[in-house]
Design brief:
366 residues, 15 helices, 65% helix, mainly alpha
Length: 366
């Protein structure tokens, strides 16, 4: 709502302006969850095609329904439809793979799913490589440090060349006529520019596994200071990470250079990684190996897993509700009505589209 400039201005505008910075967090979360599941499973991994198909079965039906609804809404509002090749790219979830496409498609925010598809395709080989090469806490922390440093290149290169650190501001949404436009769109949307974030999440899962193994071995593997550092991150990381992020989002003086691009490319990885690592240790085994963060203990009382289905439906549908909303600005009353419409709609989409599609995939795949 804030990014689409539909909210009535208020004192919360600066905090809301950081909403975009959470998109990479979900790439990191996906890398962690998928890698944890793979490392914890004794089953034979799915083939690359089977792995992608299983996940596409849960996201594509609702995604395609949202795309169709968005096109119908555009027709009803008399707005221009996308070109055929733009629609074709969206239909196959590859719109983020070419910089001229993402900002000109309907359901623009679904570029995230397009990038996620690329990571799914690469996950099998990447996970095997991670297991073979990251065999100690030292190597895991070195990889985390490398991934954390990569986003700063977007700041360092312009500075070294004596240029403006906010050079990207010359770009206008949807423009693709200049090399600068294409460069900005590439950095904002292309899967390659978020690969380090996905790998960071994978490495967090591997770090967690290695830390638990070191604990079970009674500290016989890895250096003692590093083990204590990882244990501290597990015990207090969520609270420290969230506190740091809230301070950053509240105090303009802490804003990183070129934040609209650097934060999108995840200069916030260390803080977001601490938050996620602290949260994911609440169910660690063996018991007490990694004492859970207080925030993780609070969040461990999670609602039913169906909340995830509803959250995905809300992600797909919210831009449709925004586009169809009758008033140009939303005050507090409109905001309450907005969520009173969006949340039941998301629940119905999850129950009537996402869940039946997943059940159908289970039956067809055996």
């Amino acid at each position: 709502l804030y990014q689409s400039q539909r909210l009535v201005p208020s004192g919360r505008d600066y905090l809301c302006s950081w909403g975009f910075s959470w998109v990479p967090f979900f790439f990191m979360l996906a890398g962690l969850v998928l890698t944890h599941a793979r490392l914890s499973s004794s089953k034979q991994p799915d083939s690359a095609a089977g792995f992608v198909a299983k996940r596409a079965a849960t996201i594509y039906p609702l995604y395609s329904a949202g795309l169709a609804a968005a096109l119908l809404l555009r027709v009803g509002q008399g707005r221009q439809l996308p070109e055929w090749y733009e629609l074709a790219a969206q239909s196959f979830l590859v719109q983020s793979w070419h910089p001229a496409l993402p900002e000109r498609t309907v359901q623009v925010h679904c570029w995230f799913l397009s990038a996620l598809l690329a990571f799914w395709l690469a996950f099998g080989p990447a996970c095997r490589l991670l297991e073979r090469t990251v065999t100690s806490l030292e190597r895991a922390c070195a990889l985390l440090l490398l991934c954390s440093s990569l986003p700063w290149l977007a700041v360092a290169f312009p500075a070294c060349l004596g240029g403006d650190p906010e050079w990207y501001r010359a770009h206008r949404t949807g423009a693709s006529g200049t090399s600068l436009d294409l460069a900005v769109a590439f950095l904002k949307f292309h899967p390659l520019c978020y690969l380090h974030v996905f790998v960071y999440g994978m490495c967090l899962a591997r770090t967690r596994q290695l830390a638990l193994a070191a604990d079970a071995a009674r500290g016989e593997s890895g250096s003692a200071p590093l083990r204590r550092l990882v244990a501290a991150a597990a015990s207090h990381g969520a609270s420290v990470g969230l506190t740091g992020l809230l301070l950053l989002f509240s105090l303009p003086a802490l804003r990183p250079v070129g934040f609209k691009l650097s934060a999108r490319l995840s200069v916030l990885l260390p803080l977001q990684g601490l938050l996620l690592f602290g949260l994911c240790t609440s169910h660690a085994a063996p018991a007490s190996a990694l004492p859970p963060d207080p925030l993780a203990r609070l969040c461990s009382r999670a609602p039913d897993r169906s909340l995830g289905e509803v959250a995905y439906a809300q992600y797909v549908m919210h831009m449709l509700v925004i586009a169809a909303w009758p008033t140009p600005r939303l005050g507090l009353v409109d905001l309450a009505l907005f969520f009173l419409l969006l949340l039941p709609l998301s629940y119905l989409c999850a129950r009537l589209i996402t869940r039946p599609a997943a059940q159908l995939w289970v039956r067809l795949s055996g």
